[in-house]
Amino acid sequence: MGSHEAGALHEQAVNRGPSWLKEPADPNELVAHLWAANISKAGGVLTVGGRSVSDLAAEFGTPAYIVDEDDFRSRARRFRAAFAGVDVYYAGKAFLCVATARWVAEEGLNLDVCTGGELAVALRAGVSPASIGMHGNNKSRAEITRALEVGVGRIIIDSFEEISRIREIAAELGVIAHVMVRVTAGVEAHTHEYISTSHEDQKFGFSITGGEALEAVRRVLAEPAMNFLGLHSHIGSQIFVTDGFEVAARRVLRLHSQIIAELGYTPPEFDLGGGFGIAYTTQDDPSTPEDLAREIRAIVDDECAALDIAVPQLSIEPGRAIVGPSTFTLYEVGTTKSVALDRGAWRRYVSVDGGMSDNIRTALYGADFSCTLASRESSAEPVLSRVVGKHCESGDIVVRDEFLPSDVVAGDLLAVPGTGAYCRSLASTYNHVPRAAVVAVHDGQARLIMRRETEDDLFTLDVG
User: Fold this and answer.
1) Distance between CA atoms of residues 299 and 241, nearest Å
2) Is the pLDDT assigned to residue 4 strictly greater than 70?
3) CA distances from 194 to 102, 279, 282, 350 (A)
4) Which residue has the higher pLDDT, 224 or 239?
5) What percent of the chain is modeled with pLDDT above 90?
6) Where along the chain do its domains lie?
7) Across all residues in the chain, what is the average pLDDT?
């Protein structure tokens, strides 16, 4: 019989925390590279774009995702500039709402969606369909139909069934479907298995080594209603080194060369995906867009030269790297307690008014986060603490280990940086807790871009 999940947590319990976490000289100070550009502290109070979190909490409530709009836009522009000449698609799955879709379009980026719902948001925002790419390993007929009806710029094919489905729908509509073929390059990305997407044993794409990828391309090229744009590869998420991209590019471009040689067709494009990592804690050291651009360009150029083929039009898909650092989650502390454990160890728990419903990443794949006391300055000594949520789960952990002032009490505000990606996107109403608001701050002005759910919202789907 397996042990209860709490057992594993207790076995890990120590007073010093993980080896990478160092006790701060001053727990009031911010670790600058974990936060958005326009965030600072004055007298211990966190401010974003000139607005204090105390004022934001009073106006919008907690928990809330607070987005530094200027930071988001700046990161989008930086990727566009660093990858000049490359098609940059913002990966909407990281976080998408009407406002952010508009920001992406206004900053000159394309938009990647992976469901009909995400496509609907993009269209509601006025994003040009020609600049939209549509992913998904199991697109429905309705999703494909709408994508073709509005004229999305590309559909990334993920299965043989989908080839037939697109052929039938394109013929019914009398349109040409512009498509890419997603391939698995057999690369084990240095990331968690749940977000590693290019090894062989997973649900995405066609295997290169098994021959399915070449056969998929052969079938697409035989379809008059399809325009084959090129190959697509995505090796995973939260990746800090480019060696995985190098291996993937080598294998995918060899297939690209094989298509030219054996099928007599030169694909005009090549998408290397995204998955660029960000800093959640002091142990993370992400690459800059400029470094990524230089290294990825060199990888593609060198491999094309070795294969004696022309360099195809390159695409990338950053999502987390744009929205992740731009956002933090603001919580209010409700309770604190210290729990004695075995062998003289103890654990300090700080409970906040959110939890796994607004940030499932810690529970889902052991993600690490940082946090800070955000509403006041403290002179108390730092104490290793665990920030937990209000849900009925022992695994409801927001920040596994962090040094916080020992005098943190109910009513204090805590801020967790780096929550822009996959936190609101993966949010739930577990325990019937309404989902948190999303607030954008720009030039000292704060506005809702996604309102907080209410109890009335919870009943809108309940027909009982």
Assistant:
1) 13
2) no
3) 30, 19, 23, 28
4) 224
5) 85
6) 5-67+326-459, 135-323
7) 92
Q: What's the predicted TM-score (pTM) here?
A: 0.93
The C-alpha atoms of residue 428 and residue 423 are separated, in whole angstroms, by 10
Fold of 5-67+326-459: Lyase, Ornithine Decarboxylase; Chain A, domain 1 (2.40.37)
Mind telling me the catalytic residues?
A: 392
> Could you tell me which CATH number the domain at 135-323 has?
3.20.20.10
Among 403, 402, 390, 400, residue whose Cα is nearest residue 363: 400
SS3 sequence, the chain? Answer: CCCCHHHHHHHCCCCCCCCCCCCCCCCCCCCHHHCCCCEEEECCEEEECCEEHHHHHHHHCCCEEEEEHHHHHHHHHHHHHHCCCCEEEEECCCCCCHHHHHHHHHCCCEEEECCHHHHHHHHHCCCCHHHEEECCCCCCHHHHHHHHHHCCCEEEECCHHHHHHHHHHHHHHCCCEEEEEEEECCCCCCCCHHHECCCCCCCCCEECCCCHHHHHHHHHHCCCCEEEEEEECCCECCECCCHHHHHHHHHHHHHHHHHHHHHCCCCCEEEEEECECCCCCCCCCCCCHHHHHHHHHHHHHHHHHHHCCCCCEEEEECCHHHHCCCEEEEEEEEEEEEEECHHHCEEEEEEECCCCCCCCHHHHHCCCCCCEECECCCCCCEEEEEEECCCCCCCCEEEEEEEEECCCCCCCEEEEECCCCCCCCCCCCHHHCCCCEEEEEECCEEEEEECCCCHHHHHCCCCC
For 42-63, how does the pLDDT look when each residue is reduced to its tens digit (9 = 90+)?
999 999 999 999 999 999 999 9
pLDDT tens, residue by residue, 396-414: 999 999 999 999 999 999 9
